[in-house]
Structure formats: C-alpha cells, structure tokens
Automatic annotation (TrEMBL):
Protein species of origin: Strongylocentrotus purpuratus
Chain residue ranges for the region called Disordered: 1-48
Composition bias type Basic and acidic residues, residue spans: 1-10
Pfam family, one: LKAAEAR
Protein name: Uncharacterized protein
C-alpha cells in the first residue's frame, strides 16, 4: 500500500477511501485556473489547517448547544412531571372535599327529615294515628331495604288502615 495507491489517486484513511488529485499543482498554477476548475480541484484536496480548525470548533459548538438543549428539555420535563403530580394531588384533594360536602349535605338532609317525621308523629290527634304513622314512616330510612317491601295485598291493608278515620278497623270489642 505505498506508491501504487498514491499513483492511482486513492488513499486509505480511517478505514475508508478518500479521493485525491493525481497531480499536485503549485499555488501559482492554482491561482491561474478558472474559478470553476479551481473549486473542482480543491474539492479533492485536504482542507487547509485553518479550515480544519474552524470545522472542529464549529462541530464542538454544535455539540455543546445540543447538550445544553438536552439538559434544558430534561429539566423542563422534570418540572412538567412535578407540575402534573401537583395538579393530580390538587385534583384528588378537590374530589375528597366534594365527597365530604355531599356526605355532610346527605347527613343534614337525613337529620332534617327525621326531625320532620318526629314532629309529624307528635302532632297526630290520637296515639293510634301516631303509632300508625310511626310504623309506616320510619325516622331513618332503612339501609338494608331502601325499596318498597310491601306486596299488593299488604299495601291495600295498610291503605285501608290509614284511611280508617273512625278507627273501625282496629277497634274490636272482644267482650
């Protein structure tokens, strides 16, 4: 890999081929060439030392800038993740506050309803009517059976008892 490779205009550099001009021109011959021919000739020559240094420094600047951008995006991503965690925590706190407000409102409604039912029971003209109303309308709704447990026959019996204003259905003389 000596003289023959140089004569062909091809040299091995860092594992790849690099094309070179076959004949070396002096500076005077180079200056005498037409600009287009000169640029074609210089395209296959090694760049001057100043150009090589300028290329290296510009590559270094580009790498530095890209590293800075990567660092900035990394810190921005960390800040964004912290903001997302903070927003999620605030959302959970707001949801818990809303659930608590609903629970308090439900308890207040149930207490007011129980108080109203007690008042209605105490305002009945007779004790029997009060007991009937108390049996039909409980103070606190039963959590085990929130739906209606009466069938049609039981419902008609209850309605008959409630409509009996003179107490004929429950007043029986057994004597």
């Amino acid at each position: 890999m000596g003289e023959k490779d140089k004569d062909d205009g091809i040299s091995m550099k860092s594992g790849g081929f690099k094309y070179q001009n076959r004949k070396k021109l002096s500076q005077r011959e180079l200056n005498a060439m037409h600009p287009t021919q000169r640029s074609k000739y210089l395209a296959y020559e090694d760049p001057p030392k100043e150009a090589t240094e300028a290329i290296a420094s510009s590559k270094k600047r580009v790498l530095d800038i890209s590293k800075k951008e990567v660092e900035e995006t990394r810190t921005e991503n960390q800040v964004d993740m912290e903001k997302d965690k903070h927003n999620q925590l605030i959302g959970q706190l707001k949801a818990a506050e809303a659930r608590n407000r609903l629970r308090v409102m439900r308890l207040r409604y149930q207490a007011n309803r129980a108080q109203e039912v007690k008042h209605l029971i105490s305002c009945q003209p007779s004790a029997i009517k009060a007991v009937r109303l108390q049996a039909m309308v409980p103070h606190v709704p039963d959590k085990n059976s929130p739906s209606d447990t009466l069938d049609k026959l039981e419902r008609t019996r209850v309605e008959t008892l409630l409509e009996d204003e003179r107490g004929l259905t429950i007043d029986r003389d057994l004597s």
